[in-house]
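Appendix B. Chain record.
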Amino acid sequence: MSLSKRDIAGVYTAVLMFLALSVYFIAKHQFVFLLVPFLFVFLFVAIFALDKLLLFVVFATPVSLQLSEFTQGLPINMFLPTEPILFGILLLFILKVITGRDIDYTIIKHPISILIFVQLAWLMITAFTST
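Structure tokens predicted for this chain:
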């Protein structure tokens, strides 16, 4: 696989732009921009290897940290990194349903799925009847 000169120039341009933006944001003491490459890796894995991302969520759940341990006074509290990743997986699933891609419905008949549905139904019944 050989790359054309245009592709190579595009890669060099993107790298130089990222380096320039990194220097700018570091000078402004905004270090969040340095997480952009990790975001691209997660997006790539989510699109092309969703099963690996789900395995990461399974193994990262026990070591997830609450957001309230790092910051005070936020109106939300979530566990990092698992809950944002699960939200992204949900958005990918909704996008898959909207675009009309084929979904495997045999998972709904799996015994674990049935138990989860029963648990959710019981949770709704007890939530509506509680005081």
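Further analysis of this model is presented in Appendix C.
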